[in-house]
Design a protein that fits this description.
The chain has helices at 11-21, 60-63, 70-78, 86-91, 97-104, 107-120, 125-142, and strands at 2-4, 25-27, 32-36, 43-49, 54-57, 145-147. The protein is an alpha+beta fold. It has one domain (2-147). A hairpin with a 6-residue loop joins strand 3 and strand 4 (43-49). Helix 1 (11-21) crosses helix 3 (70-78). The longest helix is centred in the last third of the chain and has 18 residues, at 125-142. The chain starts with a strand and ends in an 8-residue tail after the last strand.
């Protein structure tokens, strides 16, 4: 079954940047990657075919909530299909995303905490907001579809 994915909560763009800065994204080939969770206890499988606008990822946001999850966003940033900012990514390195999300159960609270962390690393909240809005706009233009049958054969 193919389902159109919604744009993600804004925090997922920042989480994708953090996963790249942490070195948790391993590209396997042009369409496949593995992304390790922030706690290191989960590995997500990502498949992206931009020509067909079809994606797969087994992260909860993509699979169960119907939005483009951070592993797909990270993949698209690495491939150059979405904007990437190394300075912002470095400011988000080492953030315990899952711990924060589970502790506060509110993306808006976690986003505020993350913005405070970024500010300590010299990144102003307005810079983050502008970057995230740009990525969200690009994601909406991509119109990606989730296809459960699309997997990476070598995984």
């Amino acid at each position: 079954m193919v389902v159109r994915l919604r744009v993600p909560p804004r925090i997922k763009v920042l989480e994708a940047l953090g996963s790249i800065a942490d070195g948790r994204v391993k590209m396997l080939n042009e369409r496949c990657a593995k992304v390790v969770s922030s706690e290191g206890d989960r590995v997500y499988t990502v498949y992206v075919d931009l020509d067909e606008k079809v994606v797969f990822s087994d992260d909860n946001g993509t699979k169960f909530r119907g939005y483009i999850g951070y592993p797909i966003i990270a993949f698209l940033m690495i491939k150059g299909a979405l904007p990437f900012d190394e300075k912002i990514a470095k400011a988000l390195k080492g953030i315990p995303w899952r711990k924060l999300n589970e502790e506060y159960k509110s993306y808006s609270i976690v986003e505020k905490i993350v913005k405070d962390i970024a500010k300590q690393h010299g990144i102003d909240a307005t810079v983050l907001d502008s970057f995230v809005s740009n990525v969200i706009n690009k994601l909406s233009e991509l119109s990606l579809n989730y296809d459960e049958s699309k997997r990476c054969a070598e995984l």
